[in-house]
Specification:
The complex is a heterodimer of chains A (about 425) and B (about 130). By secondary structure, chain A is an alpha/beta fold. Helices cover about 30% and strands about 25% of the residues of chain A. Chain A has two domains: about 325 residues, 3-Layer(aba) Sandwich (Rossmann fold); about 100 residues, 2-Layer Sandwich (GMP Synthetase, Chain A, domain 3). Chain A is built from eleven helices and 20 strands. In chain A, strands 4-3-5-6-7-8-9-14-13 form a nine-stranded mixed beta sheet, with helices on both faces. A four-stranded mixed beta sheet of chain A has the order 19-18-17-20. In chain A, strand 15 and strand 16 form a beta hairpin. The two termini of chain B are about 10 Å apart. Chain B folds into two domains: about 70 residues, VC0802-like (2-Layer Sandwich), CATH 3.30.2130; about 55 residues, VC0802-like. Chain B has a six-stranded antiparallel beta sheet with strand order 2-3-1-4-6-5. Classes of the chains: A alpha/beta (about 425), B alpha+beta (about 130). At the A-B interface, helix 11 and strand 19 of A face strand 1, strand 3 and strand 4 of B. Bound molecules: zinc ion.
């Protein structure tokens, strides 16, 4: 068993972990009760802090939703005076108020420790050169990884988002060995490298990628690893929980260890809100255990996932989350069928002939909701239209098997669809007439 | 004679073939002949060009999906019945033609032939 942990807490027994969680939960509740929102929520349930006598009593506690955060915009969720807060992050809200997260100095230290722990877990050391391609500013992927990698002692390159040619130049000139990047941008960067005549396997020293912030498939990860000659590890974070660092894959690449000294993990049925057993898919619900400025109780993340049952060969006792199955927000409903873009992406990534960009369009055609999937062709590989028609037929059939609806599949030339330069690519366009 | 043909994926919309010809012209590559094959949303533009290897890399650098393969460019006398004669020789040896097109090469007519076995096709043609 490998006991080379950044923090000994990674390997403590489940019993010790649960004791630690209970002690910290009590602190979280006490601190949350400084917030009028939680005072009201407890009162509505006739609940007081003393009712929580064990960890299992967590199910008595009220949930917190994104809307609750929006309604308390900007600082009404603060549990400590604003003068003791040192930073605010906010997520881009497409509707209404954005969500705001406050941090104390200790919160930032704890966050950096989590990120450092994650990077150390996959083999990053103080001798590494760490390049961060995330947007900085209010987006947590920038500063979150920045402070974590600095805490670990890496030489950090805060390249920030975009400008692919400059990214590649830094990688070459600074001898970058570790990169934090979103998956669609990693594929894009590989394309630019090819255009620039840079062979990542010979001309660059990159060996580790931290990828996240965007749902992606195992096929896409393998493709990125092959293209760049690296190991790519999944990172999970959300600004409401600090940002990146919440959960991360170990070298086994089989699930993301979620740090249970930092959060209490529940997976609940999104409709009944009742806990589901380990192994079953449900919505991830998290309770913060170390947060001073803005403790959150039973926060509904909207992320669908499951716990991978059993011990991890790496020796860490913190449970593993499976690859995310999408967000309830991304879900499309077409002809009564629930569809996630990641299901379509998974199929398309299986074809070597196709590029990495695709666009799903939903529209109403003579009172019928139809789906069109446009995907960029990669290499041509034939002089025959018939072969391409067969390819389209094969893709259509596989998509039908996956999503139970027959989409219209269109091959389009490279560069004609939106790609992800430092941000999330637009994958779905919904042009339907909504009655 | 075996020659290299360049195929390019093009969308069925205004200006898409033009883009290909501009990219080649800018690189100083001439098009000797071409034909198109039509699908519903897309088609393939096939060409014989003055410098096929360079054309392939120029097209790929310009973001096109291009493919290079071998075809037979058979001489065909400029008189009635010569094409029938040529095709008859292929049919006799059970060689079926997937597609063909023609062009004029310095006063000589040439027929571009795509078959499964290019070597065999070329041997039959050269025997004539
Ligand atoms: Zn592990």
């Amino acid at each position: 068993m490998n006991k080379d942990f950044y923090n000994p807490v990674e390997g403590i027994s489940r019993d010790e972990l649960r004791k630690l969680q209970y002690t910290r939960l009590q602190k979280t509740i006490a601190s949350a009760l400084n917030v009028p929102f939680y005072q009201k929520a407890f009162k509505a349930l006739g609940l007081s802090a003393s009712d929580i006598r064990s960890l299992d009593d967590i199910i008595k506690l009220p949930f917190t939703t994104k809307d609750d955060l929006r309604n308390n915009y900007p600082f009404k969720m603060a549990a400590i005076p604003l003068k003791d807060c040192v930073r605010v992050h906010s997520s881009s809200g497409t509707t209404g108020n954005p969500t705001v997260v406050l941090h104390s100095k200790n919160d930032l230290d704890a966050w950096a420790e989590l990120v450092a722990r994650n990077l150390y877990m996959v083999g990053v050391r103080d001798t590494d050169v760490f390049q961060n391609t995330s947007g900085y500013g209010m987006f947590t992927g920038g500063l979150g990884f920045q402070y974590g990698a600095e805490k670990l002692g890496c030489l950090t390159v805060p390249a920030a988002a975009g400008n692919s040619k400059r990214q590649i130049k830094f990688m070459k000139d600074f001898g970058t060995t570790v990169v934090h990047i979103i998956p669609s941008y990693a594929t894009r960067l590989a394309e630019v490298m090819a255009e620039e005549g840079v062979d990542p396997k010979k001309d660059l020293k990159i060996r580790i990628l931290a990828i996240g912030a965007e749902p992606h498939t195992e096929e896409q990860r393998k493709r990125i690893e092959e293209l760049l000659g690296v190991k790519a590890y999944n990172s999970f974070g959300m600004s409401e929980m600090c940002g990146p660092g919440v959960a991360f894959e170990c070298k086994e690449q089989n699930g993301l260890h979620i740090w249970e000294d930092n959060v209490i993990v529940e997976i609940v049925n999104p409709v009944t809100l009742q806990p589901v057993p380990d192994g079953e898919i449900g919505e991830l619900v998290l309770t913060t255990l170390n947060r001073e400025a803005m403790p959150l109780i039973r926060y509904r993340t909207r992320d669908l996932t499951r716990i991978i049952p059993g011990d991890c060969p790496c020796g860490r006792t913190h449970r593993r989350l499976a690859r995310f199955q999408g967000r309830s927000d991304d879900m499309m409903i077409l002809k009564g069928v629930n569809i996630f873009p990641i299901q379509i992406e998974k199929i398309l990534m299986g074809y070597k002939e196709l590029g990495s960009n695709f666009l799903i369009t939903l529209e109403t055609i003579s009172n019928n909701d139809e789906m069109t999937v446009e995907v960029e062709l990669g290499e041509l590989g034939t002089d025959n239209v018939g072969d391409l028609k067969d390819l389209v037929k094969d893709i259509t059939r596989k998509l039908k098997d996956e999503i139970l609806i027959t989409p219209k599949v269109k091959l389009v030339p490279k560069g004609s669809l939106p790609s992800a330069e430092g941000g999330k690519a637009v994958r779905v366009k919904d042009l339907r007439k909504l009655f | 004679m075996i020659v290299e043909q360049i195929s390019v994926f093009v969308e069925n919309k205004a200006g898409s073939i033009e883009k290909v010809t501009i990219a080649l012209a800018n690189a100083g590559i001439g098009i000797r002949t071409f034909c198109t094959e039509d699908g519903s949303d897309f088609g393939i533009l096939r060409m014989l060009v003055t410098d096929p290897k360079k054309a392939e890399s120029v097209l790929k650098d310009n973001g096109f999906s291009a493919f290079c393969n071998k075809v037979v460019a058979a001489k065909c006398a400029n008189k009635t019945g010569s094409l029938a004669y040529l095709l008859n020789k292929l049919a006799e040896r059970n060689v079926s033609v997937e597609y063909m097109y023609a062009f004029q090469d310095n006063d000589e007519a040439r027929v571009v032939l795509r078959t499964k076995d290019i070597e065999l096709c070329n041997t039959i043609i050269e025997e004539q």
